[in-house]
Amino acid sequence: RFYERVQALHQDPKASVDNPLLAFSLIKRLHSDWPNVIYSDEATENTQALHAGFKEVEQELPGAEDLDGAARALMRLQDVYALSVKGMANGVFQRAGASRPPLYSPGRRFSLSADDCFHVGKVAYDMGDYYHSIAWLEEAVSLFRLSYGSWNPEDRSSLEDALDHLAFSYFMAGNISHALSLSKEFLHYDPSNRRVARNVAKYEKLLETGMAASAGPLQRPNGTRLQSRDAYEELCQRPRGQVGLAGGCHGPPPHHRPPPHALLGPFSLQPSPEQLRRLSCSYETNGSPYLLLQPAKKEMVRIRPYVALYHDFISDAEAETIKGLAGPWLQRSVVASGEKQQKAEYRISKSAWLKDTADPVVRALEQRIAAVTGLDLRPPYAEYLQVVNYGLGGHYEPHFDHATSRKSPLYRLKSGNRIATVMIYLSAVEAGGSTAFVYANFSVPVVKNAALFWWNLRRNGDGDGDTLHAGCPVLAGDKWVANKWIHEHGQEFRRPCSADPQD
């Protein structure tokens, strides 16, 4: 039965990682469901062979950290895209209480089991996050009730486990009466449990004496560092539209431009009429002989902050080469924290650094970046190419690319602050993954093989506050990008100061 279920799920191997629910269940199956089957009483006939086969691959399998991370990724998708937990458990990616079409409709629908929902809720419960634990444990309880009496050897949890954790979650959230009714339901299935019997007596006493505070609406936990959360999430939720001229700069040459309204694409905030007139698509040589035969296809996305998208910047073959070069070196991404670098929940991805000597493709790409930007990329004026993979729920909450403190590790290069960013999209995604500019109030969807360019610093060297940006969580698919960060030193005559000190 277990083998047949696994076979049915993996008829299309690529879908296993594109759909976040399938990806979560795959990680969970490899970490806990499969070992549970192997070490269950039902497997006694083949014990030796099963154990030996499992031991061979055990070291390669996901660990507890991977599974808990996958559960947190589902909660992140639930939050950022305002998804209904009941819908997610049924394989539908629908905004809670919304009548709009789903954000993502997988080719084959996949549902989570009661044990899956219990695990997500348990991860939240263990973190003291009762806002999320209640939603997921409620779904686990509903599904366990439907299947009560049947049991799967791969499951670690049961209806009693789900009721127990849900009751305590409600108690911690201040809803004593609901905690009491769930605890009584638990005792119906397991009357001999003394701990839960003591909880029932405690809840009844609290209600009798009127000491139970009235439960208010559950508040979602908010990290103090993310003050712009609502704006960020609203940008991530915007529907994926076409960028610019019918999805790219493939339309008529610049002197045959369509009316300005056709250039807005997915960006719902209307720029000023003056800015609108300056938004355009063009073929650019930037005065570089390198671009004479094949000009860059430039789309101006915003004037302030200055953001441009270069379509068809890299070929499919080059993108695959760069992903292949980076793959063996990928490690969990870190962020600057004072003078150190460390892992953080607000940046979930894996990254690797490639020197231009790694492959002719990397060297050619760096030449192309230098030609398009007109900037000096020779060491130490730019950092190595950073290749980043955002998998299940991968994201990077709002941040600046430039350093906001002189103590930042960025200054160790002794080449000043990061003056500009070039971000190349090496893959497409089915849903999510947009780059959201939070203060400027617009987002750019993932455009495969395109490069996004923006200035991090003003001409006077001050950081541009409007470049606060985020990588929205990947809802479906596998997002790869390559970042090139260019520093101030070496650009003095390529991007000189303005006569206006405020510029």
TrEMBL record:
Pfam families recorded for this chain? 2OG-FeII_Oxy_3, P4Ha_N, TPR_P4H
Q: What SUPFAM superfamilies does the annotation carry?
A: TPR-like (SSF48452)
Key word Disulfide bond present: no
Where does this polypeptide localize? Endoplasmic reticulum lumen
Keyword terms, alphabetized:
Dioxygenase, Endoplasmic reticulum, Glycoprotein, Iron, Metal-binding, Oxidoreductase, Signal, TPR repeat, Vitamin C
Broad class of the protein's primary localization? endoplasmic reticulum
Q: Which reaction does it catalyse?
A: L-prolyl-[collagen] + 2-oxoglutarate + O2 = trans-4-hydroxy-L-prolyl-[collagen] + succinate + CO2
MF (Gene Ontology): iron ion binding; L-ascorbic acid binding; procollagen-proline 4-dioxygenase activity
| Cofactor dependence | Fe(2+); L-ascorbate
Q: Does the keyword Transmembrane apply?
A: no
* Subunit structure and binding partners: Heterotetramer of two alpha-3 chains and two beta chains (the beta chain is the multi-functional PDI).
Say what the protein does.
Answer: Catalyzes the post-translational formation of 4-hydroxyproline in -Xaa-Pro-Gly- sequences in collagens and other proteins.
Name the chain's protein.
Prolyl 4-hydroxylase subunit alpha-3
What is the organism of origin for this protein?
Sagittarius serpentarius
